[in-house]
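FORM 7B: Structural annotation worksheet

SECTION A. Query
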Amino acid sequence: MKGPLFITFEGIDGSGKSTQARRLAEVLRGAGAPVTLTREPGGSAGAEEIRALLVTGDPGRWSAETEILLFTAARRDHLERTIHPALTRGDVVICDRFADSTRIYQGATRGELRGKVDRLHELMIGVEPDLTLIIDMDPGHALRRGLAREGAGQRFEDMGLALQEKVRAGYLDLARAAPSRCIVVDGDRDADSIAHDIAAIVRDRLDRGQ
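SECTION B. Predicted structure
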């Protein structure tokens, strides 16, 4: 198995996508594939600085438009410094969140700005993943799990269950709109079963040359 292959994990907060991204990286490395594991917002020095502005403090401190610009600036630096170099080397890049998160959170739930999100993405990013794994689970369960975590990452969990439900619906709509790229994985199961299914999906994609 070898890349390049750009894989992203998406889902509501608390769905376990970060854990599954790490587990996939371990499986692929164990099989001899070169892997770059990264995340958004963040993944490069400049993007991590912007992340600190986005995930801490009062959830209402930025307007939706300002958030879109901050996320896009972080993503551009991440793309230049981490993702593009890794794909050029032939790595499998596994990213915990990417542009779909901005489309769903800022575009679909904060002012119906999806059109602006898509135009800005096309102008400044211009890259879509080869494969997006959407970890789908009950929003109430996911929210309870997310709120049990400590630290600065609670910014979006603090927005509550109503947001989680809207975000889940947005991701399912996205999967229906982009079936060749997005695969929905049942996240309401034990972590080992989820990881097994994800590994099988990715192995098949790599064996088929994407």
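SECTION C. Observations
Strands lie at 5-11, 35-39, 92-96, 131-136, 182-186. The helical segments are 17-30, 45-55, 64-89, 99-109, 114-124, 139-147, 161-177, 191-207.

SECTION D. Sign-off
Analyst initials: ____
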